[in-house]
């Protein structure tokens, strides 16, 4: 039976069986590289979309936090102003907002009039020609002597009345000692004269330059900053993976609202570039074949010079806008090249520590929020956009950057 079944086998099936056994599949590296490039491109598109959503979410969250803090500060300020207005309305009409009575206000007015009379000489009557020759200092001394005599007579009357009450009632004897102590304390008080007032004014005028110098001496602020960085080539899109910034800055306050700063930041950037956006030196490509995509990773020093303006103030915080120019020093450049149709001999990577300097290569625009913890310590959050002014790097690319800086600042005395 077995022989009969073998004789009755299908010749077509035997043909395919024999050919499959004899056929040897040839390995071609190019096909595997094409397949790998297609898979990598699909992963890149997926990662690119994810990075866009992450960047949009971070920026939206940052602006939401800044908006909430601004709104909360404004509400607190409105509450405080309403409380102050209500207290002023509830105060009695005879009292000032500081709680002083009408007598004190009258006494102050009377005192100011007396001081003005001492400071400004009055017109003497025409009959007293000798008094007209007296100086203002002589008038002030006469007034001081008169006031001292009146004070002494008042003290004597007060002491006599206290003794009379003490003789009549022994309980009042204790009070008399208090009057004596009071008379001693009154004797130490000196009357106000024009000389003392002018001396106080001169001392205040002499101390005012010191106050200005103390304010001017605290205009420098040192900051330590860090934050994420998203970079791309050609336009603000097609981001690859986030890098980071880490550095320091020093700031000088020109006025209360205007300041100038300079800093240095170590920055790591990642980006993707198409064939027409990546321009290495002429003749670099093997066989004249340009890669379809270049993936770059660069480490550089960013040296920004910025001008900051505070445009909105709150109780312990403020909003500000900043603009400036940046210069790049390329420390390390690493590029990988991807081809759609790879051929043996094509270049896959270029890596070198170049150290090239690109002065005033990018312009920076940003808006930030600053919160004061103490008089000297503060925290800043500052989203930024960097726009290229000229091409940078070994491959001459127009590098865009988008991110946010967070810094801790200390005011130097």
Automatic annotation (TrEMBL):
It comes from the Bacteria. The keyword Hydrolase does not apply. Keywords: Membrane, Transmembrane, Transmembrane helix. Residues 86-155, 195-215 are annotated as: Disordered. It comes from Fodinibius halophilus. The chain crosses the membrane at residues 53-71. InterPro entries: Beta-barrel_OMP_2, OMP/PagP_B-barrel. This is Outer membrane protein beta-barrel domain-containing protein. Residues 91-102 have a biased composition (Low complexity). Residues 105-120, 143-154 have a biased composition (Basic and acidic residues).
């Amino acid at each position: 039976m077995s022989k009969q079944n073998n004789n009755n086998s299908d010749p077509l099936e035997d043909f395919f069986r024999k050919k499959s056994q004899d056929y040897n599949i040839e390995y071609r590296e190019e096909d595997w590289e094409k397949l790998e490039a297609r898979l990598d491109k699909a992963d890149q598109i997926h990662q690119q979309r994810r990075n866009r959503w992450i960047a949009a979410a971070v920026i939206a969250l940052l602006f939401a936090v800044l908006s909430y803090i601004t709104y909360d500060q404004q509400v607190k300020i409105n509450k405080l102003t309403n409380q102050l207005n209500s207290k002023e309305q509830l105060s009695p009409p005879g009292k000032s907002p500081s709680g002083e009575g009408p007598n004190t206000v009258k006494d102050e007015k009377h005192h100011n009039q007396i001081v003005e009379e001492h400071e400004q000489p009055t017109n003497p009557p025409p009959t007293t020609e000798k008094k007209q020759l007296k100086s203002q200092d002589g008038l002030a001394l006469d007034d001081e002597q008169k006031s001292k005599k009146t004070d002494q007579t008042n003290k004597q009357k007060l002491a006599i009345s206290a003794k009379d009450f003490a003789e009549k009632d022994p309980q009042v004897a204790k009070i008399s000692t208090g009057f004596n102590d009071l008379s001693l304390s009154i004797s130490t008080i000196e009357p106000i004269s024009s000389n003392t007032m002018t001396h106080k004014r001169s001392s205040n005028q002499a101390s005012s330059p010191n106050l200005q110098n103390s304010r001017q001496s605290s205009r420098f602020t040192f900051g330590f900053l860090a934050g994420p960085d998203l970079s791309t080539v050609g336009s603000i899109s097609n981001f690859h993976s986030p890098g980071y910034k880490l550095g320091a800055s020093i700031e000088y306050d020109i006025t209360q609202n205007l300041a100038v700063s300079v800093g240095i930041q170590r920055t790591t950037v990642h980006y993707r570039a198409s064939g027409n956006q990546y321009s290495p030196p002429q003749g670099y490509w093997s066989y004249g074949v340009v890669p379809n995509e270049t993936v770059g990773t660069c480490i550089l020093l960013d040296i920004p010079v910025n001008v900051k303006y505070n445009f909105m103030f709150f109780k312990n915080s403020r909003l500000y806008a900043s603009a400036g120019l940046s210069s790049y020093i390329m420390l390390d450049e690493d590029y990988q090249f991807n081809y759609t149709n790879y051929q043996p001999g094509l270049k896959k990577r270029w890596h070198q520590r170049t150290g090239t300097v690109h002065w005033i290569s990018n312009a920076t625009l940003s808006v930030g929020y600053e919160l004061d913890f103490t008089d000297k310590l503060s925290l800043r959050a500052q989203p930024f956009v960097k726009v290229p002014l000229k091409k940078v790097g070994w491959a001459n690319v127009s590098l865009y950057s988008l991110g946010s800086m967070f810094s801790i600042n200390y005011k130097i005395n």
